Amino acid sequence: MSTKSSLSLLLLFLGVQIGVNQQAAIAQTNPGVVIPTTPRNSPPPPVPNTTIPVIPRNIPTTPGNKFCASQLTSNVNAVTNRPQFNRTHWGILVQNLDSPQILYSQNANKFFTPASVTKLMTTAAALQTLSPNYRIRTSVYGDGNGVVQVVGRGDPSLKNEQLVILAKQLREKGVRRINQLIVNDSYFKGEAVEPSWMWEDVQFYYGAPVNSLMLNENAAVFKLFPQTVGKPLLFKWDNPIDASGWKIVNQTVTAAKGEKGYIEIQRDLKGQTLYLKGQLAEDSSPDVTAIAVFDPIQNFLQHFRQSLAKEGISVAKSDQGSVNNVRELAAVESPPISELIKETNINSNNLYAEALLKALAVKKPLTNNQTTVQAGLEVMKTSLSSIGVDSTTYKLVDGSGLSRKDLISPQALVQTLQGMTKSPYAEVFRASLPAAGKNGTLKNRFSNIPDLDLQAKTGTMTGVVSLAGYVNSPNYGPMVFSIMVNQTEQPIRTVRNAIDEIVVHLSQLQKC
Question: Of 66, 118, 231, 319, which has the highest C-beta tally within 10 A?
């Protein structure tokens, strides 16, 4: 897996916001106020468990070719049986959208490491269980004696703009001094980071911790600027607050004009130390990266205290915990689930997926030592079963697919996709998927086939490439498909090209 993440996903402090248009629904004290943001306009960067944007290229199958459905098996087998895939495990299932008729099947009931196609199941369950209009509320409470408590409930979209809104609401309530600012992070039970995630992933923003009170996706952005030849690259945090507690070991260098650049970033296993290696050419653009914050609660407190100070509200001390006998003074809400799942699927956002999984637990009281994730997975299983997904066809430990302990069969994904077409929320779910050549993780794929009617979820990890969704052939009709590749030593682009070729075959089917 990659140990370096070049950033286009998290330009948190450059005016480009991650995900959906952030809407802050204010508490009863100030209804109707919303916060506009700029939607992200670029696909995710090359990182594990997201689809890597590729240079547009020609799919080997020429658009315009047509063939009978009876020829599909031989055409797909011709792709999967190529010599370079001798050691590759393929799992494929293709069905008519409106019927259980199987058009093609290869290892469809076998388990595969899914990567981000897992998000199809997470978002389907979230829609079915919580409904499209469900919002996640973040509240600020006061006891009337200078004690103020912030309670998070797992809103993954909370940004600095919402802290400004909360601070303004407090000022409107007459708050000028806080004797004790308490952060209540107890809504989610269990680890903030899934134990089976790989260390090289959790260093970066795409493996950030998922706790009850997240801010700016629990990530911090920094840049490396080239200087004169021979000098170290200039390191600069986008927000100076994020520098707190970090030690930077900078072993980079500025190279001569035209030289190839590369950057390697590692974080200390135990503390806040960043090790930087590599080079950028003197005439190159800055390198932009986002890392997971070291302590989400301290990160929240530092940013919130800054927002409070700008509103003239002083804070004597701050701490983590909880207090009773309080009343709500201020609140913001997330965009509706219908918008959160768009960010989750279109841009393959891991943190959003994990937050949605944990949000499912609101429908099931925790028992004994059960964690929020365990409860969420139980609710997911019940929800997916209700739309026809066989619970024996998958086994999950998270909601994003970042864990290699996740196991899903092509059959489970097709059942999910089929089941959601019969859901009252079918259109909402379909709208959350990337469209070929248009947006998200499919923006730069199939760009040479402008009329391709394809909406699908991608998934990529080292040795894993997946694609599952809906495709329509004008001369045959709509289909649902799942293509999963595991244990491949081939370059990701080679595997992806082969998958795309199969999808183009599907789009060229005709009734004979």
Answer: 118
What are the tokens at 348?
Answer: 């393959």
> Around 220, how many Cα atoms within 13 Å sit in the side-chain half-sphere?
24
CB contact burial 216-245 (16+ within 10 A = b; e otherwise) = bbbbbbbbbebeeeeeebebebbbeebeee
The C-alpha atoms of residue 89 and residue 489 are separated, in whole angstroms, by 11
Cα separation values, 198 from 130, 204, 269, 471, Å: 30, 11, 12, 33
CA dihedral 403, 404, 407, 411 (to 10 degrees): 90
Query: What span, in angstroms and rounded, lies between the C-alpha atoms of 26 and 449?
Result: 44
Site of tokens 């999967």: 80
Residue range 129-170, pLDDT digits in tens: 999 999 999 999 999 999 999 999 999 999 999 999 999 999
Q: Write down the pTM of the prediction.
A: 0.88
Digit-coded pLDDT (tens) for 416-470:
999 999 999 999 999 999 999 999 999 999 988 888 999 999 999 999 999 999 9
* Whether residues 156 and 107 fall in one domain: no
Q: Is residue 382 part of a domain?
A: yes
Instruction: Check residue 227 and report its DSSP letter.
Output: -
Range of the domain at 465: 67-131+336-510
Tokens 């490491």 found at: 113
Q: Cα separation of 8 and 289, whole Å?
A: 8
Answer whether residue 376 is part of any domain: yes
| CATH code of the domain in which 241 resides | 3.50.80.20
